[in-house]
Every structure is written in structure tokens, then in C-alpha cells.
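Researcher: Dear colleague, please comment on this protein.
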Amino acid sequence: MNRAQLTAKLREQLNATPWLRWALLVIGVLAAVLGLQGLESLRSHAQDMSIEQEARLRQIRSLQGQDVWIARQRESAELHESLLAEIPSAPTSGVAQAAVQGWLAGLGNSIADTESVRISVEGAAPVESMPGLFRIRATLRAGMTAREALNVARQIESSANLVVIESAEIRSDVNQLASFGVNAFYRIAPADQQATP
């Protein structure tokens, strides 16, 4: 059977059975719908990939010219060096404690009621994150006016060495009293490099 005969036989069967025409039409419609669904899923996948690539491109472009991180690293290193320069050296922790006590006594002399001045200095404790560095906690307590207390706080903060106010309590009622808890930082070094706050 050649092709022409096969086509003629098919036409003959289609003419003899009208429901076969409708079945072929439904099959054709279903095949077209399935084809369109496949194309839609391909288009959706391509769109998702395009959106993802665009987001990645925007992220890469936003990172361009971000030399600011290098500058910040430089600034951080400079700040670290300047903080280290503010940390005095002492041959022993006992000498450092005595230096802190003497410095606080000097601050206490700037208060009108020098007899009420109480200074306590705790032992030196190493700073875990920085070997060779230790912290000395001390407290200055005295009867003083609020103005005197603010003056003492300014003197502590403007110290040439690294001293941090950890706690402050200022009472301006009948019992005028102020108390400052400070942390002074020291490094152990030879005696010829000793510095005081």
C-alpha cells in the first residue's frame, strides 16, 4: 500500500464514522494544550533564572567601588595603634596600682572637701584578649557638689592614658556624694619606660 492509498482509506473511514473526526479534533486540541503548557513552564523557568541572574548582577555591581572597607580597616588599625599608645607601661602590677592610686589622690585634691575623699584600688587583672595588658579597677568616692563631680569626670576622661569610667554615681541631695569607678589599663615593661596617668 502506497501513501496515496493509505490517505484515501483514512478519508473513507473518517467519512464513514463522524465521531472519529471529533475524536481526532479533541486529540489535536489536547496535544496543543499540552504543548502550550510545556512552553509556559519553560518560559516561567527562564523568567525565574533571569530574575536570579539580575539580582546577582545588582549585588556584584553594588560591591564595585567598595574600597571603603579597605579604608575602614586602615582607620581601625590606626585607632588600635593610638589606643595602644595611650596605655602606659609599668615594671610591675604593684607599681601600676600605686600610680593609679597617686593619680586618683591628685584628682581628690581638686575637691573642696579633701577629708571626705576615699580611694580604693583593686589588684591588677589581665585582659584576656590582649596578652601583656592588664586592668586596674579603682574607685574614687568623696563628698562633692555636682559641679565638682562633673569636673572630676572631665579630668578622668581627658587623661593622657587610657582610663575608662566604668560607673558613676552623683548625689546632689543633702548628702552631696559622688563615686566614680574607673578602669586603668597598663602594660608590663621595663622600669625605664614607666609612665603614670
